[in-house]
Design goal:
globular; 12 strands; eight-stranded antiparallel sheet; alpha+beta; 7 helices; 226 residues
């Protein structure tokens, strides 16, 4: 699945984030700092690549049993839940980062490049612990959405994964996967490692949720009343 959301975020929110809290983002552009931090987070896990069967009967392709991909009780997800925090950038934005202040470096990689398949969902344990070309947390948008949903649920937040559409710069709609979570009575859009307060976010972006699910909500049409 192609990813369209992150570049839009970087363009729109980068100045806001930097102005709000430079110290919180001092490592974001520092590749060596991120790589050093990743190397220090040694995981005692050997991830196994799951078999994948696509469901092509839906408007946007999905796994045959999407709820099985939300795994808050998995030991790798639990490790990330315990070793990450939500850092508040300002009143509208959080970032998920390691305890030492290093942001999670989520690396976008197409399914075609990593698996030689047009579509391939991986479970959070593989996405979070497996290194692709030397980098962990490598995958496409649904891999990130599934993993972040699992971590946030493990942290105790009411969260769902979403498949839908985003409006691109050329006016066309592209498929995308992201998440939503509830924090202190507010809903946040979760895209890779950033959380954007939804009411603020919707003033800037045109994203259309189509499906939602988590470990207890079966794959179904999106409803804001989850």
């Amino acid at each position: 699945m192609k990813f369209y959301g992150g570049l839009i975020f970087i363009i729109i929110f980068s100045s806001l984030i930097i102005a709000s809290d430079n110290s919180a983002n001092s490592n974001i552009g520092n590749t060596s700092a991120i790589e050093a931090s990743e190397a220090s987070h040694n995981l005692p896990f050997n991830p196994v690549l799951n078999d994948y069967q696509a469901n092509k009967s839906t408007e946007i392709w999905s796994a045959s049993e999407p709820s099985l991909y939300i795994t808050p009780e998995n030991e790798v997800v639990q490790w990330y839940s315990k070793h990450t925090i939500l850092k508040k950038i300002n009143e509208s934005i959080y970032i998920i980062q390691y305890e030492d202040g290093t942001p999670l470096q989520l690396n976008y990689v197409r399914d075609q490049d990593q698996f030689g398949a047009e579509d391939y969902w991986v479970k959070p344990s593989y996405y979070l612990a497996h290194a692709y070309q030397g980098k962990r947390l490598s995958g496409d948008c649904e891999d990130a959405a599934i993993a972040m949903t699992s971590i946030l649920i493990a942290k105790g937040y009411d969260s769902i994964a979403i498949l839908g559409y985003v409006k691109k710069n050329d006016g066309t709609a592209g498929r995308h996967a992201w998440a939503e979570t509830k924090i202190e009575g507010k809903i946040y859009v979760v895209d890779f490692s950033y959380l954007y307060e939804k009411s603020y976010f919707q003033m800037k972006q045109q994203w259309t949720p189509r499906y939602m699910w988590n470990d207890v909500i079966t794959f179904r049409d999106y409803s804001p009343d989850y």
